[in-house]
């Protein structure tokens, strides 16, 4: 009888210990989730989405954009203009293009950058290397190169500046020394392709974004276009588009 009561006590004590252990494990799990939440929330705060300020639009910009016949398509969220932490070592004021991840960065002070989503060139047509802004133009005319004429038949010799021009609202002409590389950073009348690799090698931005970038740079600005497969953006755009979150990816 005594041994039976002792056995029941042992079972009861073990049950309480198991319950206590489960409670402790549950608490640890909850605290772990809270801690992870704080960490993730910190990561999320490192990416602040901000549309290009309207203050950068000139009167003619507003007139031209109001005449746009293309669909006013917003890029997917990962490719919208954002203020982000910047982990590379380029000097503030430098433009860095990460073609692998379809981003252009304008490096700022204090470990920050303005990040824009871009359309980049197909692999065989893409430019990479270090250049400088050798010329700048607002609502530029487009003169297709001989190579583009070979690939696309029926193009005019040139297209006047305006909202229907494929160069869009602004163009930054990339030079190496005194040589025009024939590659540009420019606007687009096809905003639906931001985040894709379809251009003839140039870097396309939404017209609103390229107007904003243009207002922040000058002749001689250094442009670094990373080599293919060398993109090291702290934000993995493909993961984000697949629904894996919008925070910086741990490298």
Fold and architecture overview:
With 251 residues, the chain is α+β, with helices and mostly antiparallel strands. It contains five helices and twelve strands. The protein has a ten-stranded mixed beta sheet with strand order 1-2-5-4-3-12-7-8-9-11. The chain is globular. The chain starts with a helix and ends in a 10-residue tail after the last helix.
Can you lay out the helices and strands and say which pair or pack?
Elements: H1 2-45, E1 47-49, H2 59-66, E2 82-85, E3 95-98, E4 103-107, E5 112-117, E6 120-121, E7 129-138, H3 146-151, E8 170-176, E9 179-186, E10 197-199, E11 203-204, H4 207-216, E12 222-225, H5 237-241
Parallel strand pairs: 3-12, 6-10, 9-11
Antiparallel strand pairs: 1-2, 2-5, 3-4, 4-5, 7-8, 7-12, 8-9
